[in-house]
Amino acid sequence: MKSLLALGLIATAFAITCPRRFDSAKVFRVKPQNEKQVSFLKSLASKIPIDFWYPDSASHIVNQMEVNFLVRAEHSNTTKTLLEQNGLHYEILFQNLQEEIDKQLERNSPDSYSYTKYNEWHKISAWTARMAEKKPKLISRLQIGKTFENRPMYILQVGKQKDSKKAIFMDCGIHAREWISPAFCQWFVKEAIRTYGKDKVMTNLLDNMKFYILPVLNIDGYIWSWTSDRCWRKNRSNVTSNKCIGVDLNRNFDAAWGTVDASKDPCTENFCGPSAESEPETKAVATFIRSHLSSIKAYLSIHSYSQMILFPYGYTLNKAPNHDELNELAKKASQAIASLYGKKYKYGTSALTIYPSSGCSDDWAYNQGIKYSFTFELRDRGKYGFFLPESEIKPTCQEIMLAVKLMASHILSRTM
Ligand SMILES: [Zn+2]
């Protein structure tokens, strides 16, 4: 999920010296009822700096879509007045976003690690080493590259046979502010080793295939979202001469790069970078996957929020060759999710279900010949958005676990 506008420039420059503040910043939820209101909302974005939470930019707004956006304190009264003048009912999801940020940060103790809390990068990094050390027969840690700020990118390889011929690659945390995503990758590893030898499905999976788990893809951005700007989305590269920092890594893959919903303006939230794979993080993942193409049967990418299971394509409305199978699998996964706590996840192609976009990792992986490629958008549907309370980490991870196990079992039985 995405977007900022001109505000990005000022905010970024400011954030270099001190954390970006969100005092009295408000998150609005509106639902346009006709085309007139749609065009009004699109034009509002050109009058006031708006950080779109859902959809990622004003251009994706359509009639009857629930739109969530963040407005700084100084613009909130104007926003209210303009919404009212245009007959748009609104709900305010957060009256003071800074309070929410402070609450989350207060609960964070510097050293303790927990699967039911959001963990800072240094804790996740230490956890990857600990896991590999604790369960050497099931887990090994590999470094696949370095981030723009020179941090090592670690993958945990999980499975009984190191030379297994089938593998699933899963990444979390491409977008920095989507904190529930890395929480899921960690949960997955924990559950895999906890239930191996006890749960039939998991035992079968780990005996016959391996998982490559990248707990945080965008490490620099994730750290920045903890220290300087909780709403940060992109990585932290400054390869362009522009003052604005960061590339949207999920627009930087070589799949119709730079076409649909990808901006060439470094100050936007969906800036696709100077070229495909220009970013070290994208390059590391793409290189790793390319060199393991004979074994990688599936690619899963975990994002938040909006509760969806998406599959190719995002950059075209054309159906993928195995569309029906992907659709059926996504449907079953969505049913498995709903069976636990009743949460409804929509499913379908990215272009039709969320919005068209290009340079995305799932389309890229699919075009490499990985026939099972899915993106998950986890909880919620906008009440808390990127600020999903820690009390929802466990149920979210539990329901997604069911979906991933179901998909993995299908993939194991259907691939050679
Ligand atoms: Zn995302």
Automatic annotation (TrEMBL):
Residues 114-411 form the Peptidase M14 domain. The keyword Metal-binding applies. GO terms for cellular component: extracellular space. GO terms for molecular function: metallocarboxypeptidase activity; zinc ion binding. Residues 1-15 form the signal peptide. The active site is at 377 (proton donor/acceptor). It comes from the Eukaryota. Keywords: Carboxypeptidase, Disulfide bond, Hydrolase, Metal-binding, Metalloprotease, Protease, Signal, Zinc. InterPro entries: CARBOXYPEPT_ZN_1, CARBOXYPEPT_ZN_2, M14A-like_propep, M14A_act_pep, Peptidase_M14. GO terms for biological process: proteolysis. Its cofactor is Zn(2+). Gene3D superfamilies: Metallocarboxypeptidase-like, Zn peptidases. PROSITE patterns: CARBOXYPEPT_ZN_1, CARBOXYPEPT_ZN_2, PEPTIDASE_M14. Belongs to the peptidase M14 family. This is Mast cell carboxypeptidase A-like. It comes from Podarcis muralis (Wall lizard). The gene is LOC114596745.
